[in-house]
């Protein structure tokens, strides 16, 4: 199997080493690692909305409308 040498800053190496289980190689640690996707920015959201996306499906909106019809307001809103 081919190998590749990488350079890590000390804090990254310590984090990797701390995640290493007994008998596990660094390659195995990296393979089982999960990486969160980069968070969306306000610019990403604005671009999405401008492209016509709302994030809410038509099916969901119809279900909300149906639920509203069967959920009248209370007689006394303070109860």
Q: Identify the overall geometry.
A: elongated
Report the count of strand segments: 0
Oligomer: single chain
> What is the helical fraction, as a range of percent?
40-55%
Order of helices and strands: HHHH
Count of DSSP-assigned helices: 4
| Amino-to-carboxy terminus distance | 70 Å
Low-confidence stretches: none
Q: Mind describing the biggest β-sheet?
A: none
What is the mean pLDDT?
88
Please tell me about this protein's structure.
It is a single chain. By secondary structure, the protein is mainly alpha-helical. The chain is 48% helix and 0% strand. It is built from 4 helices and no strands. The chain is elongated. The mean pLDDT is 88.
Outline the fold blueprint.
Elements: H1 10-19, H2 26-32, H3 42-50, H4 58-69
Provide tags for this entry.
single chain, 4 helices, mainly alpha, elongated, 48% helix, 79 residues
Question: What's a concise summary of this model?
Answer:
The chain is 48% helix and 0% strand. It is built from four helices and no strands.
